[in-house]
Amino acid sequence: MPKRVKVCYTLASIALAVGAVYASPARLVAFGKEGVGSIDYQDRQQGSHGTYVQCYVQDPDGDVDPLPSGGACPHQDGTPVTMVYTADGIGGPLLGTKSSYTRAVVICAMGELAGYSLMVAAAVITGCRFAT
């Protein structure tokens, strides 16, 4: 396998991994709703690595979900907060407005575009090599 193909695949893997890190906020911005919910409560839980604090918020539809980032609540119980959320609760909710996650959407899109472009480049290099 030519060195250029290995480089393309390596860079594609890195780009796709970076894009995947930002996929959850990007999904919420694309398919979620923005609204005002509230901080519901925080709870101390036992995990595989010890005890941790988890914050729960109530979305505008009335569903209570944990914040995916974990940690203490940023405000007291009952405080209104703007959030981006989905009805299924997957990947969120995230506190803030949709526009506050624009950077995450751009990074996700750039990572995916660069990753798949590099994979196509590797395939073209490989195809050209076998065609000659």
Describe the structure.
This protein has about 130 residues and is α+β, with helices and mostly antiparallel strands. Helices cover about 45% and strands about 25% of the residues. Helix 1 runs antiparallel to helix 3 and helix 2 (about 25-30) crosses helix 3 (about 100-130). The model has no long low-confidence stretch (mean pLDDT about 90).
Q: Catalogue the unreliable spans.
A: none
Question: What is the mean predicted local confidence, pLDDT?
Answer: 90
Helix content: 40-55%
Structural class: alpha+beta
Q: Main β-sheet: number of strands, strand sense, barrel status?
A: 5 strands, antiparallel
Strand content: 25-35%
The secondary-structure element order is HHEEEEEH
Total beta strands: 5
Report how far the terminal alpha carbons are from each other.
Answer: 15 Å
Shape: elongated
Strand order of the largest sheet: 3-2-1-4-5
Tell me the radius of gyration.
Answer: 20 Å
| Number of helical elements | 3
